[in-house]
Amino acid sequence: MGPAILWVCGGRDGCWWYRAELPRRWLAAQGYDVRMTNAEGEDVGHIDDFGAVVLQRLSYNSIEGTTEMLGFVRALRRRGARVFYEIDDDLWRNSFIRGTGPAPVHRALRRAAFAQMERLIGACSGVLCTTPELGRV
Q: Is 83 exposed, middle or buried (0-12, 13-18, 19+ CB in 10 A)?
């Protein structure tokens, strides 16, 4: 059906099930070759095998990790792959993330994290999200 899809997942938990595994199963039923990795050394093939890459849950990475991933995304895009940023939380309006919840994050750090995340989203080909409302944010 075309180049394989690489899905870079977070942990294999409930979010993984409905945000990665169920879409993988649907795509596989349509004839797509979808391979998943937690980036923990699984052999999923050579990076040139993939025409599309989905990055799940990157909004929870460190700023340093996001910077490294930005270089990876740009390299993938240069060689023609489509890269998608997958997100299911409205991090811009979520009171816990914004610092008014039970574990506030320092404002300067929060701003830096959002800036890095937005740079990463901007470098991707598109965004996958769980609801139309989130897509409009």
A: buried
> Does this model's pTM top 0.70?
yes
DSSP one-letter code for 130: S
Round to whole Å and give the CA distance between 109 and 96. Answer: 14
pLDDT tens digit sequence for 27-78: 999 999 999 887 666 677 777 889 999 988 665 555 566 677 888 899 999 9
Give the helix ranges, DSSP H, for the chain: 14-16, 22-29, 63-78, 95-98, 107-123, 132-136
- What lies within 8 Å, CB to CB, of 109 at 6+ separation is none
CB-based contact 63:116 (threshold 8 Å): yes
Which of 66, 67, 35, 38 minimizes the C-alpha distance to 53?
Answer: 35
CA distance 125 to 108: 28
What tokens appear for 1 in the block? 């059906």
Q: CA-to-CA distance for 44 and 34, rounded, in angstroms?
A: 10
